[in-house]
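Exercise 7b. Backbone tokens:
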């Protein structure tokens, strides 16, 4: 692995916004990153119903945390418009299937979203019934590492099209070890998303990151930790110099 590369689960490489002295840069251990995200798909639909498969993060309790699926007649979620229908998930299974009834599906485009909390703004993934095969916006919230230093890190985030992370109180937390959003203590560091761009980069500063250690980054759709949408685990390696 070259000294000027970082191993990323998503394959995304972007210039960091956090300036780190070159002698204090850490590397991510090769093949140690793992990204967990929420997903939603549509295995079947007809003129009256839409069947939806959903999958949350490990440890999620959809009924307890008021998860739901919702559908709009649109190709992108219109965040301020009520859905055609919204169905609560009534079982605490991390993944499952629900059927949205009482619809009239035409040849127009429809979009289904899966929410990890009680509000429309907690939707973190989507799936489209396309009217004309148009390319869809990103279908799930995800995070990746841009740059890693011994006292700071730069994180790239991606939400759904038209989403406003700052207005909806999105944030990212960092924990040492393999952390779960549903049973964690105070994070080592956290940062709020200060932009309403649906995709961007944020930095965490003044963080003491150890070598040969595991860390967990978690992206949240709201202030409550039950609104977790993506988990990124990574292991640090030894510092490198001259890069």
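Sequence design result:
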């Amino acid at each position: 692995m070259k000294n000027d590369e970082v191993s990323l689960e998503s394959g995304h490489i972007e210039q960091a916004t956090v300036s780190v002295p070159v002698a204090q840069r850490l590397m991510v251990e090769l093949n140690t990153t793992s990204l967990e995200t929420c997903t939603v798909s549509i295995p079947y639909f007809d003129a009256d119903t839409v069947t939806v498969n959903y999958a949350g993060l490990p440890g999620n309790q959809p009924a307890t945390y008021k998860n739901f699926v919702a559908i709009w007649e649109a190709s992108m979620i219109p965040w301020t418009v009520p859905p055609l229908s919204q169905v609560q998930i009534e079982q605490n299974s991390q993944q499952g299937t629900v059927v949205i009834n009482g619809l009239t599906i035409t040849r127009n485009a429809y979009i289904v979203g899966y929410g990890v909390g009680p509000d429309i703004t907690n939707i973190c993934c989507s799936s489209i019934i396309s009217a004309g095969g148009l390319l869809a916006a990103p279908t799930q919230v995800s995070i990746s590492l841009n740059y890693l230093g011994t006292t700071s890190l730069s994180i790239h985030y991606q939400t759904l099209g038209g989403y406003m992370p700052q207005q909806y109180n999105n944030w990212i937390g960092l924990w040492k070890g393999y952390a779960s959003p549903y049973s964690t203590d105070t994070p080592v560091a956290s940062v709020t998303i200060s932009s309403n761009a649906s995709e961007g980069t944020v930095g965490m500063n003044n963080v003491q990151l150890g070598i040969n250690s595991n860390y967990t980054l978690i992206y949240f759709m709201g202030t409550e930790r039950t609104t977790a949408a993506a988990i990124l685990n990574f292991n640090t390696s030894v510092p490198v110099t001259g890069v």
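Instructor comment: DSSP finds no helices and 15 strands in the chain. Residues 180 and 222 are 16 Å apart (CA to CA).
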